[in-house]
Design brief:
Distance between the termini: 66 Å
Number of strands: 20
Length: 671
């Protein structure tokens, strides 16, 4: 008999259906030579401290650090889990072979390995590795089963993560609680990922609270109903550009200079700005140049879990945890692929399946409408575009980006439908042409007198962007169209300026050399503090170890050092809520007084630095890919824990952390 074990009953039933194991039993399905059973997520966990040594049951500074000579696992203390484990154990002990059907990732591997270790499995074990739960994917997966030994490093990475979290969490939590708590029952929870995440929020909060706004004045002028903004050469940026070009030349590389680089003129005093305004207001504005440049914008990336959580938080207000639950549900219902992924690319072998996925989207019906049919139809009758920005084997390891499976969804909740819609439109857009636009830059000048009496000229610039071919953008247009036309709008359908001015009237046609009167104005400007984190921006910060990055390629490079994994970041944020270290005010996140004080008293950068924690995450990924030894990683953590204990015990201050009282959800104490 072949025993298959999945992570959830719902997944097991889908697998059993394909295998022909249709006879139900208590805790498993049977038939056609298979027995298909399941766990409920983690059935086993690492032992508690007192299960290694009885004296570790009592919280005492003298017992720290607690470092077991060998880690052991135990069954979770739950009657339902005990009953299901007994069923699994009976099946596995009588099995001829076992197929590990756990979720295809570190956590899924760890869950099933620990169960098999607890049972004491000795028969051969194979591994099922699939990215969706469609019948086709399951059949292909069983046709291509691998030896479990092929995934040993994946298990070691998961095991190293779990033991590392135990070492730091158990020791640091007891250490800081006993040393710094204010009340007898208070617990100060410290975690390898949660503490640096909290530190990100606290640091941003301090930046906001300590921010001192700076005032400046910006000069602009209206010429022929168009706003032009005063600019000047950015000498620092131009010098940096020249240095980069020179450095490239030394290495034998050719790097093109960016040419003149300009920045907006800002005056430190109103008097200085007014003097220039008075000096130019009676002089004519002259157009120096009109340049047009064609550009394009590629379709947005496909979704990984983090980007999906970010967009769902921005667009719908869904928490990271809620988005994970929704996309997990869509995966288990066979409508989308495996969700716990950190890549936005697809492998080449998915390309032949894309026409069938498009057909499934064409047939998708929501509220009596085939919502994607008008978008899929233009792609028919010709091969789908295959872009390197979408299909790249080198950017895909265990799993590919989240995409629809091609199974037309039925019975979705309103929230599930919203998530499915995002995933589907991103997939469709990936096969559309680029959005093309034309950028027109108009440079002008007005003569004026400098303080020393010398003649000079004030430069002005206005930039207009007109979409010439919407391309993929039609996929994301609302049903209701606006009245703005591409021909009339300086920025196509958006009607927004590019930050160097604002639209006034319709786009004018300018000619080099023309001149005429203008109306200059001086506007007051204040610098603004950093914005508090939302769940969306916090997820991005965790992904890039606290660095603000908009560029997709650079963000990909920083993902390797991100803190936490895509599948665990939502749980980390929920833990911070539960510990009452953070609270939410509308959509923004704020640290509670307890959270602020806790980060304030932690002097050990290893505990609260996002960058250092990101380096640990990188090592865990290296373990997964046979580039780092698990024993070395655990040894480093043991040494780190020992050093932290010594440092904290030597603190002779009398600092304590106050506890945070219960506060209604969504409320934040005013300072």
């Amino acid at each position: 008999m072949i025993v298959c074990i999945a992570e959830k009953p719902s997944v097991a039933k889908e697998i059993a259906k394909v295998l022909g194991a249709t006879t139900p039993h208590d805790g498993y399905m049977e038939g056609n030579g298979y027995q298909v059973t399941w766990t409920f997520g983690h059935l086993c966990e690492l032992k508690e401290p007192h299960e290694y040594y009885p004296q570790w049951k009592t919280w005492s500074l003298s017992q720290l650090p607690m470092i077991p000579p060998r880690f052991g696992i135990r069954l979770k203390n739950d009657q339902g889990i005990a009953k299901q484990f007994a069923t699994i154990s009976k099946l596995m002990k009588n099995a001829d072979s076992i197929v590990n059907c756990g979720d295809a990732g570190q956590e899924g591997e760890l869950i099933q390995r620990w169960v098999m270790a607890k049972v004491g499995v000795t028969c051969p074990v194979k591994r099922l590795w699939i990215s969706s739960l469609t019948e086709e994917a399951i059949r292909e997966g069983f046709h291509d089963l691998k030896d479990q030994s092929d995934y040993q490093n994946l298990y070691l990475a998961g095991y190293s993560r779990a033991t590392g979290d135990w070492l730091l969490g158990m020791n640091a939590t007891r250490l800081y609680t006993l040393k710094y708590r204010q009340e007898a029952r208070q617990v100060l929870s410290i975690g390898r990922v949660q503490t640096p995440t909290l530190a990100l929020i606290v640091r941003r909060q301090h930046e906001i609270e300590n921010f001192v706004p700076k005032q400046s004045w910006v000069l602009s002028t209206i010429y022929r109903e168009t706003k032009f903004t005063a600019i000047a050469h950015d000498e620092d940026a131009e010098a940096e550009d020249a240095a980069q070009v020179a450095a490239a030349a030394k290495e034998g590389k050719t790097q093109k200079s960016k040419g003149p680089i300009y920045k907006q003129v800002e005056y430190n005093t109103e008097e200085e700005g007014k003097r220039i305004l008075e000096s130019i207001k009676n002089n004519d504005f002259t157009v120096l140049s009109v340049t047009k440049k064609n550009g394009f914008e590629s379709p947005p990336r496909l979704y990984d879990l983090t980007s999906l959580q970010v967009d769902c938080n921005k667009k719908f207000g869904f928490s990271a945890d809620m988005t994970l639950q929704l996309i997990q549900s869509l995966y288990e219902k066979k409508f989308t692929t495996y969700p716990r992924v950190d890549t936005t690319f697809l492998p080449d072998d998915v390309y032949p399946k894309c026409p069938n996925i498009m057909n499934g989207l064409f047939l998708t019906n929501f509220s009596g409408q085939q919502v994607y049919a008008p978008l899929v139809k233009p792609l028919g009758g010709k091969p789908l575009k295959k872009s390197k920005k979408v299909f790249d084997n080198s950017k895909v390891t265990d799993h590919h980006a989240i995409i629809p499976t091609g199974v037309p969804p039925k019975g979705l909740t309103e929230m599930e439908e919203k998530v499915f819609d995002l995933v589907s439109r991103a997939f469709i857009a990936a096969f559309y042409d680029d959005c093309k636009f034309e950028t027109t830059t108009v440079m002008g000048e007005v003569p004026f007198k400098e303080l020393n009496g010398n003649d000079s000229h004030m430069l002005f610039r206005a930039t207009f962007k007109r979409i010439t071919d919407e391309g993929w953008k039609v996929v994301f247009q609302k049903t209701e169209q606006t009245n703005v036309t591409k021909e009339d709008s300086p920025l196509g359908e958006t009607g927004k300026e590019d930050g160097m001015g604002e639209r006034i009237g319709t786009f004018q046609t300018f000619t080099k050399g023309e001149s005429g009167p203008h109306i200059p104005t001086l506007s007051e400007k204040w610098t603004t503090p950093p914005k508090p984190y939302t769940e969306a921006t916090l997820l991005r910060a965790m992904e890039t170890a606290g660095r603000f990055v908009e560029n997709d390629e650079l963000r990909d490079a920083l993902k390797e050092n991100g803190i936490g994994r895509p599948s665990t970041r939502a749980a980390i944020i929920e833990t911070l809520y539960r510990r009452r270290y953070i609270r939410k005010e509308r959509t923004t996140l704020w640290a509670t007084p307890t959270g602020v004080e806790l980060i304030g008293l932690i002097h050990e950068e290893l505990l609260k630095s996002a960058e250092l924690t990101g380096l640990w995450e990188k090592k865990l990924r290296q373990i997964e890919h046979s580039q780092y030894e698990a024993t070395t990683f655990i040894g480093e953590l043991k040494q780190m824990v020992n050093d932290i204990v010594v440092q904290v015990l030597s603190d002779s201050s009398n600092r304590h952390v106050s506890s945070t009282p219960e506060t209604p959800k969504g409320k934040r104490k005013k300072k």
